[in-house]
Amino acid sequence: MSAGPVILQLVGATRVHGDGAREVRALDEVDLSVRMGELVAVMGPSGSGKSTLLNMAGGLDTPTSGEVLLAGDSLSDLDAKGRAALRRRRIGYVFQDFNLIPALTAAENVSLPRELDGVRARKARREALAALDEVDLRQLANRFPDEMSGGQQQRVAIARALVGPRRLVLADEPTGALDSTTGEAVMKVLRARVDAGAAGLLVTHEPRFAAWADRTVFLRDGVIVDATEPDEPEHLLTTAGPRHRDGR
Ligand SMILES: Nc1ncnc2c1ncn2[C@@H]1O[C@H](COP(=O)(O)OP(=O)(O)OP(=O)(O)O)[C@@H](O)[C@H]1O
Ligand SMILES: [Mg+2]
């Protein structure tokens, strides 16, 4: 499968926290491009800058220096409100700690970004139920987060990231609280969405989940220290590997 145009581009993206002796370079001159149709895995030890990279990519935080471009437009040209609107419309974000709203049911959590974007409540609910169906949670649509297991909450967060026509999915360890079977199922959903023309950036600690990606970048101390090529021969030879299974 050939990848499409570049949707996300980080150019010399740097994020520094604190100053002087307490300065932390969470991200240090990172260059990265992600194309439509591409799923890119991000791996690296705790504290290496993976969440920081995702926050930059999603416009949740802005680089100290360098640039983040979404479909060619610089996020730094937008104000906070503009970035929020862009995120709602174009970017699905699965947070490391889910971030579900406790007072809303699963279906309401998933439909919220659509309703905020002006989609009528009925249509938003229909889309939410379809997204919950994709993660096999349709039957828990009316439960509240505290009535669900950690893995179920995580799947709701994934449904919320996939709902509607989102084209860029940023997922920070979406399989962290899932058993391996459910984890594989979630990867299948992500893979299918990307194959259908979206793009994805996936943080994971698990090589077996990274195997679903087209390539992997490795971070250490805020720097990309290694990356696999998009079409490594090894990748093409593992015909039984996840990448080659039917997405659905
Ligand atoms: N608000 C902050 N103030 C100071 N330092 C921060 C802040 N946020 C992150 N950092 C530091 O930036 C570095 C990168 O953090 P980040 O959360 O991106 O790591 P990570 O790779 O996602 O780790 P994990 O696997 O544990 O989630 C860490 O050293 C962290 O302590
Ligand atoms: Mg993190």
UniProtKB/TrEMBL annotation:
Q: Which residues cross the membrane?
A: none
Limits of the ABC transporter domain: 8-246
Q: Does the keyword ATP-binding apply?
A: yes
What InterPro entries is this protein classified in? AAA+_ATPase, ABC_transporter-like_ATP-bd, ABC_transporter-like_CS, ABC_transpr_LolD-like, MacB-like_ATP-bd, P-loop_NTPase
Q: Which GO terms describe its molecular function?
A: ATP binding; ATP hydrolysis activity; transmembrane transporter activity
Q: Which domain of life is it from?
A: Bacteria
Q: Cite the entry's keywords alphabetically.
A: ATP-binding, Nucleotide-binding, Transport
Query: In this record, what's one Pfam family?
Result: ABC_tran
Gene Ontology CC: one annotated term:
plasma membrane
Q: Does the keyword Metal-binding apply?
A: no
Under PANTHER family, the record lists: ABC TRANSPORTER RELATED, IMPORT ATP-BINDING PROTEIN
Q: What is this protein called?
A: Putative ABC transport system ATP-binding protein
